[in-house]
Each structure stands twice: as structure tokens, then as C-alpha cells.
Amino acid sequence: MNLYTEHRGPAKYFHGREEIIDPFIRTVEHYRSFKRGTTFLIKGPPGSGKTALLYKLGEIAKDSGYKVIDNVTPIDLHDPEYMAKRLGVRYTVSYHKSVGVNLKLLHGEHGSTSTSRASVADVIKEASNDTVLILVLDEAQHLADLVSPQQVKAATTSTLNLIHNGKVGCPVFLLAGGLGTTEVALKDLGISRIEDVAKVRLGSLSMDATVAVIEDHLRHRFGMDPPPAEWVKSLAAPTHGWPHHIMCYIEAARVTLGGGTFPATHEALAETLKQGTANKETYYQTRSHGIEKKQRAILAHLFANQPSGGTVDKSDITTALEAQYTPEAAEAVFTRALKQGVLDERADGGYAIPIPSMQSWLIEEYGRDKGCDKGGRFSMER
């Protein structure tokens, strides 16, 4: 089995997030009472459990009798034909002949062919049939790719605004999840403000929820009934409540326990912890792909004296990078780090490394003693 096959999609055992689930339910019920809708945004770093939470909210909405459309993509928001296929609505394009007034454009012909197309909002209204419709858009940061050509941006902006402002003509919600850059992408497409109650920054799970998830895996997958307290406590501690990290250690346990066929010895636990830590570090390397060692050393230097989750101004980051690179290259490194979740914009306008243990890893692996000489200059030597 591929190491990360269980890290995306619905969680096998879901616990916690009540502080998000409850406001979501209240938001949908509030707007439904007015036969309107809006945008509900869940943003967070990679591995924070956005996809699993979107699936859970969708399941709750279905149980409430609402119509939920999973796997909506950015193209669906500007192309009515794609949206019709997504919603299961029959969509036809009608053609008609029109006589042109400008003879130069007709080039001697008697007429021209034009196309009559419904808008995406028209398709959504047709599919709603006066029931609550919830469109689930994961990886919503990719909306940033729809700023060109102009007709694509205009069509997407129109759809998003009609949904966000409750003007589709039926109660329709966009339930979107994405990285920290998602809100910027939405602003570029005309969604300048999302109500605080409908905007969530996803972080770690509580310790109680973390323990409950681990216990469920150990009990139901590996036959530990009850799960040994030593295993639960030891596996929970290094995850820091991060859903992806929980699965790093659970996947390691699957291997060391042989899916439940090997005994849960102290040696097996030690090997599980070792392999789980290696899985985490592999994940950090994946998130940092395309950022050179010297560039990682610069970032490590900037965050070395920051507390966990502490922020650094963008100007400080780009200035440090520009000491070694052109301004264009420095901006490209910053943008890559932001898009890949190595950096995340915070409410104070600064940028943080969103995963606490990733900050520790970056500093330990690429910190000043390993990537910076006595004069403060960074080198490739390790």
C-alpha cells in the first residue's frame, strides 16, 4: 500500500471539529430559512484534515435532507456545460441564424451562427428544484488559476457572486476548502468579504479527539481491545493533533503490527515511533519540493528565534532571499512556499510555518549552524 493512500478523502474514524460543524449547520439553516445561500470557507495548511472535514459536513448535510454535490471543480463554476454534467442536468446548446447588420463582418454571407447558452447560475437553479443545494469544492486555492482569459474570470466571478450573495434564486451554498491562499483567490474573483461565522481556519485536533482517532484505529484495525495506554499515549504525543501526522504513525503501526497479526511488543512500538517520524519528515520534504537547500536555510534562519507559529513579515522574507537571489527569484521562492503550505498568511498580516513540528524540522535540518557562515551568509555546505 502506498504510504499516503489513507491521508486524503473521508476519515475512517472521525472525531472532533464540533466547533466547526455546529456553526456550519447553523449557517445553512439560517440562509435556508430565507431561501438563499452563501459561501462557507475552510482554509488551512496541508495535512490539517480539510478534505475529511468537507466530506463529514457533506454527510451531515445529506442526513438533513439537503442535496450535496461532491467534487465540484473550478471549471464547473464558469462553464455551464460542465456544471450541468456535474449536477446531472440535461444541457443543450441551441443554434440560430441571425442576419448581420455590419456587412464587413459578414463578408458577403447572408447570416451568421450564434449560440444561446444558459449561465452556470441557470443550471444550478434548474438542479436545485427548490431544495438546499451544497456544492463542495476541495483544493479551492486553484481558483487563482481562473483569472485569465478575461471571459473565464468574468464568468467565474459572476457565478461566485450570485452564490455568495444569495441571488441564484434558490438556496445554494459553496462549501470550499483550500490552503491559506484560497481567500486571496476568492478576493481576486470578487468575493471581498466572508462572514466570520462562515470562515474557518483549520488547525490541530484536540488531544481528546486525537486519542479517540488513534484508539479507534488500534482497536478496529489492529485488534487491540482495549488499546494499550502506552501505545495510545506514545503515538498521540508526536502528532501534535495534526490529522496527517496521526496517519503517519497509524500507517507505521500497520506495517510493524502486520495489520494486527504481529504482537504489540515494546520493540514494535519503538519501531512504529521511528517509522512514523520518518513518514512525517518525508512529508515535509514533499511539501518543500522545489525549494532549494540554501533557500530552506534562509527560511530556517528567519524562523529560528520565533515561537511555534510565530510570524515574519513578507518584506523580511523577501529581503533575506534577495541577499542571494534576484528580486524575481526571491518572489518566486516566497510564492512557492506559500502555495505549497510551507508558509501561511496569518490574521496579523505576517507569515508563519503553519505546522509546528515542520517549523522544528526546518530549523533542525537547515538552521543557522548548518546553512549559514559566521558572517550570516548562507551556503550550500552542510
| Beta-strand fraction estimate | 5-15%
Unreliable spans are 1-6, 95-116, 373-382
Q: Percent range for helical residues? A: 40-55%
Largest sheet: 5 strands, parallel
Features:
disordered C terminus; 5-stranded parallel sheet; disordered N terminus; 382 residues; alpha/beta; two-stranded antiparallel ribbon
Model description:
It is a single chain. The chain starts with 17 loop residues before the first helix and ends in an 11-residue tail after the last helix. The longest helix is centred in the C-terminal third of the chain and has 22 residues, at 266-287. The model is unreliable at 1-6, 95-116 and 373-382 (pLDDT under 50). By secondary structure, the chain is α/β, with parallel strands linked by helices. Strand 5, helix 6 (150-164) and strand 6 form a beta-alpha-beta unit. The chain has helices at 18-32, 50-63, 80-87, 103-106, 120-128, 150-164, 182-188, 207-220, 229-236, 243-256, 266-287, 293-303, 314-322, 327-339, 356-366, 368-371; strands at 39-43, 67-69, 94-98, 112-116, 133-137, 172-178, 199-201, 344-345, 351-352. A five-stranded parallel beta sheet has the order 2-5-6-1-7, sandwiched between helices. It has a two-stranded antiparallel ribbon with strand order 3-4.
What are the SSEs and their pairings?
Layout: H1 18-32, E1 39-43, H2 50-63, E2 67-69, H3 80-87, E3 94-98, H4 103-106, E4 112-116, H5 120-128, E5 133-137, H6 150-164, E6 172-178, H7 182-188, E7 199-201, H8 207-220, H9 229-236, H10 243-256, H11 266-287, H12 293-303, H13 314-322, H14 327-339, E8 344-345, E9 351-352, H15 356-366, H16 368-371
Helix pairs in contact: 3-5, 8-9, 10-11, 12-13, 12-15, 13-14
